Amino acid sequence: MAYASVLSRDPAQTYRQIDLAGRTANADGPALVQLLYEELCLALRVAAWAAEHKKYAVKSERVTRATAILFALEANLDFERGGPVSTTLARVYAGARKQVIDASLGQDGAPFRQVADTISEIADAWKMARAA
């Protein structure tokens, strides 16, 4: 019964949750980081859209998701093995988090897109490193 009521509220969101659960079930650490990057970029782009269309509840939810993902990425950095790269990523994540929080106070989608573009570049580099 609870499952049916969740489906009736937002079937698209339910599908995304099921899809994400399926992709994370057997993923290793590097694959999970890749998924976090993808989910972060998606959250930021939706926040940008929501800000511009005055969908404040959606913007708030996506900002919350984006900041949680940024915290998770930062918390899981391995400074011993990652050295300067980990330190640089920690700064990038902290700066991105500040930019997202600052942008959450306005109606401009551009700052969210700027952070998404930056994270997308990191995600592309991560994907290439994993493939090598």
Commentary on this structure:
The chain is mainly α and 132 residues long. The protein has a single domain (29-131), classed as Flagellar protein FliS (Four Helix Bundle (Hemerythrin (Met), subunit A), Up-down Bundle). The protein contains six helices and no strands. Helix 1 (2-9) crosses helix 2 (11-25). Mean pLDDT is 86; it is low at 1-6.
Distinctive features:
132 residues, Four Helix Bundle (Hemerythrin (Met), subunit A), mainly alpha
SSE layout and pairing:
Layout: H1 2-9, H2 11-25, H3 29-52, H4 56-75, H5 79-103, H6 110-131
Helix pairs in contact: 1-2, 3-4, 3-6, 4-5
Pfam families: FliS
GO cellular component, one term: cytosol
Subcellular location: Cytoplasm, Cytosol
Outline of this structure?
The protein is mostly helical and 132 residues long.
Rg of Cα set: 16 Å
- Percentage of residues in DSSP E strands: under 5%
Report the CATH topology name.
Answer: Four Helix Bundle (Hemerythrin (Met), subunit A)
Q: Tell me, what is the CATH class?
A: Mainly Alpha
Shape-level CATH architecture = Up-down Bundle
Oligomer category: single chain
Distance between the termini: 47 Å
Quickly count the helices.
6
- What is the number of strand segments? 0
Helix content range? over 70%
Largest beta sheet, briefly? none
H/E order of the elements?
HHHHHH
Task: Please state the average pLDDT score.
Answer: 86
CATH superfamily: Flagellar protein FliS
Shape: globular
The secondary structure category is mainly alpha
Please tell me the total number of domains. 1
Show unreliable segments. Answer: 1-6
GO cellular component, one term: cytosol
Keywords: Bacterial flagellum biogenesis, Cell projection, Chaperone, Cilium, Cytoplasm, Flagellum
Subcellular location: Cytoplasm, Cytosol
InterPro entries: FliS (IPR003713), FliS_sf (IPR036584)
